[in-house]
Fold:
Amino acid sequence: MAESVRRLLGRPGSVSLQPYTKLLKTIEEREEALRALSDAELTEAAAELGNAELPYDRSDLTELCALGREAARRTLGERPFDTQLIGVMALLDGHVAEMATGEGKTLTGALAAAGFALRGQRVHVLSVNDYLARRDAEWMGPLYRLLGVEVGWIGQESTTEERRAAYAADITYASVSELGFDVLRDRLATDPADLVVPEPNVAIIDEADSVLVDEARVPLVLAGAAEPAESDAAMAELVRKLRPGIDYRVDDDGRNVHLTDAGIDAVEKALGGVDLYSAEDTTLLSRVNLALHAHALLQRDVHYVVRDGKVRLINESRGRIALLQRWPDGLQAAVEAKEHLAASETGEVLDSITVQSLVLRYPIRCGMTGTAMAVAEQLREFYELEVAVIPPNKPNIRVDEEDRLYATAEEKEDALVEKVAEVHATGRPILIGTQDVAESERLAKRLERAGLECVVLNAKNDADEAAVIAEAGTYGRITVSTQMAGRGTDIRLGGSDMKDRDRVVATGGLYVIGYGRYPSSRLDDQLRGRAGRQGDPGGSVFYVSVEDDLITNNVPEARGYRVSSADGEITDPAWRQTVNHAQRIAEGQLLELHRNTWRYNKLIDVQRSVVLEHRRAVLHDNLGSRQLAVDCPATYEELVEQVGEEEVARAARLVTLYHLDRGWTDHNAFLADLREGIHLRFLGRRDPLDEFNRDAVPAFKGFLDEARARAAEMFAELKVVDGRLDVAGAGVKRPSTTWTYMVQDQPFSTDFENIVGRVKNLVGRD
Structure:
C-alpha cells in the first residue's frame, strides 16, 4: 500500500518492481538450457548481447540475468536469488536499489556492471574505500572473465601506469575519492599522454548513500606544494593555557570556537599588550583563531591520529585514516604545533570537485545501499535518482529493542558494560558500534577492567578490518568498532567458517549494541543491519545519555527529565522523543551543509567548465600555438626558424596551460575568500548566495583573455637553450608534490565573528 501511495504522489521510492518480477519465471526457464553450455559457449552467448544498444529490451534483459546467474554459479559457487536479479534490473534502468545488509549487493552490482559493459559501456564501480574496491574486483574477477569482460581496480598506492591500465578495462573499481583525485590531476596534465581517466559512461555507486550524501559534504580538493611552513609553537602553548567556558566558548554545533572578552584580554596580555583587532597586524588574530581551533575543536583520536611522527586525518564518515589528506594550510600547521611536531610544507589549492559534479559527469548512474529511502529526497534532488526498494530474500527476524536512555554518560557506560557481561555469559557474539577512535579505546579498556576481552577495530588498525569483521559472529566474541558503514565484510554466525553456527543461533544470533545514537538515523540502521542477515536471528539496542554530543549539540536547552531507577535510567517517553528530535536536527544540519556545498559550487562548476573546455582545446588541438602565432607573430616566426614547429608547439602548449592553471588557482582563491565572508551580506538583509554570484560573475569576466595576454607576454621572452625553448627559465613551474584537503564550510572564526569580537573589545575598554 505504501509503495502504491508513493507512486501515486510521485514521491521518491516509488519505482515499481512489477516489470522486473514478471520476468523472473522466464529467467528461471532458461536455467536448464544454459547449464548445458560449455564455458566457451556461455561466453559467446554473453557476447551476443552486445549487438544491441542500451537500454536492454525485456528479452535481452531476461537473457542477461539468466546468463549472469549461471556464470555466478560456475565461478563463485553462488546462485543469485530472485531478489538479486530484481536489483540487477533496477540498476540497469538507472535506479538506486535499496538492499539490506547481507542480501548480496556486491554480486548484484557486478552483474549489472557486466550488463552495461557487454553493451559497450565503460563502467566505473565506485565504493567508499580502497579495500572494498580491490576486494570486489578480485572477488568478481572470475565471473567477469566468464562473461567476456575485463576488470581492474585502483587504490591509493596505485602507480600512474597501474591506474591507466585499470581505467582501460571494461569495468574499473575505485573509491570515489581516488577517482575524484585522478580527475583533478588530469585537469593539470600538460601532455595528452599523461591523461589517465577516460571519458565517463556509467557509474555504479556502492553504498550509494554514504558516497552520494555523506561524502558529498566534503569537496575533494587538490593542492600543490608551495613552500615550507613555519610552526607556531608559541601560539599553541598560549591557547593551551586558556580556560574552556571562561576564555573561549565552543558553539552548540561544535564547528566554531570563539574567544570571550576574558579570553581576548588574556591573549592580548600574553602577547605583550597588543590589540588583536588592530589593523596593523591582520595575521595575529588569524594565528590565534587557528591555534584555538586546533586546540578546542580537533581532538586527537577523534579527528586525527598521530602515526610515525605525522598527523593523519580520520575520515569521519568512514572511521578510517585518510591518506594524503590534510587540513587547509595554517590549520594543518596549528595541529602539528599542538602535537609538538615539525610543520609540513604549505601549499595552495589547485582545483576542487564536489561529489555531485564528479558523479553527474556520467550520463548513466545508478547505485545500491541498505539505507536509501531515508535520503531518497536528496538522491532525487542532487542526482536525479529514484529508489527501488528490493525486498529481502528471507524475512528479517531481528529484534530491535527500544533505546536505553540515561542521565549521564558514566551511567550509560556502566549499564552498557553490565549488559555486555550479561549477554556474553550466554556465549552470544556482541558487536558494539562507537563513533570515534577515542570512544572505542576507552570502552575497550573499561570492558577489559570488567574481565571482558574484546577485539577493537578503528582507524588505528583499519588494515585488519576484514579479518576482525569476518569473525565478529564467533561464539563468545566481543567486537568494538567505529563506523560500520562500508566495512563490506559479512558477519556470518559462527565465524567466517560458520562451524559454530548452530550454537550461535541458539544464543539468539549477533547482538548489536550502539554506544550512542549517530547524527543520522541511516548510520543507526547500518549498524543494526549487521545483525539478522539473510533471515538469521539477531538483536540490537542503543544506549544513549543526556550528555551525549547528539543531545548537547542539538537540544542543549532540554531539561526536566525524571530518573526512574537507581542506575540513572530515564524511561520518560517524552525524552525518547527528545532524542529523536535531536537526531532530526542533526540530519537537517547535515543536509544544509550538503545543500550549501551544492549551491555555492553550481556557479563555480559553470566557470570551471569554461576553463576546462579551453584547456582541452589547448591540450589536444594546438589552440595555444595558434593563439600565440596571432598574438606574437614576429617572435613565433623567429622561434620556428630556430627550433622547429614541434618544439614551438610544445612550448606554446606549456606556457598557455601554465597561465590557464595559474589563473584558475588565483580565481579559486578569490572565490574561497568570497565564500568565507559572504554571510556578512546577511547583515544588510541581502541573500548571501545572490551576493556570491553577483561578485563571482564579474570576477571571471575576461579570464580567458587575461590568461592569453599573460601567455603571450611570457612567450615573447622565451630563450633557446641547447636547442630547446627554456619554459622553466621563463617561469613555468609545476608543483613538485600534490595532496588533498579535507575542508568544511567555515572551519574557523568568520569575518563576522572577528567584527563582533572587535566591537566587544572596544566596548570593554570604554
